[in-house]
Amino acid sequence: MTHPLRQHIEEIISLTDEEFDFVLSHFEQIKRRKHQYIVQEGEIVNKEYWIVKGCLKSYFIDHTGKEHILQFGMENWWITDYESFVKQTKSKTSIDCIEDSELLYITFENREKLTTKMHKMERFWAKKSKMGRIALQNRILSLLKNSSKERYELLLEHYPKLFQRVPKKMIAAYLGVSRETLSRLNS
Q1: For residue 137, is it within any domain?
Q2: pLDDT tens-digit readout, 124-183
């Protein structure tokens, strides 16, 4: 059976067995339980995570104590505080597990080594980065131009499984609406 990370990478580039073994040697595997952090606001983030199994959220708490969810992450998704990871500055977000999760991570140093030694992986991450920017742009545009009902319907259309895995209050925090508004949208 093919390793799930290899399947994921080979959606963009092809790898020989030796190349994949080399790539995998740069990663570590960890397991985290529901509610455990992988990133806490204020720390310098040195790892980028690939989700093997589980569901996570990236979020911040504003000055009033309200949670704002920036991103969910499920199987085959990458997640970290990218500004902190790339610039090695303090994280502005926290990331924790909504479910028990299995993750592979690569450190900043190992990612730099890997992309220097293997240009295929540099292309892989460049494509992933471009796709991430597109998704972020679409999320911002949706927040600016779509009604809360339209945002709800788009999220449901694109990620129906998310609604089975994530509590409604988190869906509301992601959409930027109250739990009560979400209940009205849902009916």
Answers
A1: no
A2: 999 999 999 999 999 899 989 999 999 999 999 999 999 999 999 999 999 988 888 878
* Amino acid (one-letter) located at 101: S
CB proximity list for 63: less than 8 A, separation 6 or greater: none
CA dihedral 67, 186, 163, 96 (to 10 degrees): 10
Task: Tell me the C-alpha distance between 19 and 123, whole Å.
Answer: 14
The model's pLDDT over 6-49, given as tens digits with 9 standing for 90+, comes to 999 999 999 999 999 999 999 999 999 999 999 999 999 999 99
Q: Tell me, yes or no, whether 155 lies in a domain.
A: no
Q: How far apart are CA 4 and CA 16, in angstroms?
A: 15
CB-count exposure of residue 45 (10 Å: 0-12, 13-18, 19+) = buried
Q: Give CA–CA dist 63/143, Å, rounded.
A: 21
The predicted model scores a pTM of 0.92
Tell me whether residue 156 is in a domain. no
CATH classification of the domain holding 65? 2.60.120.10
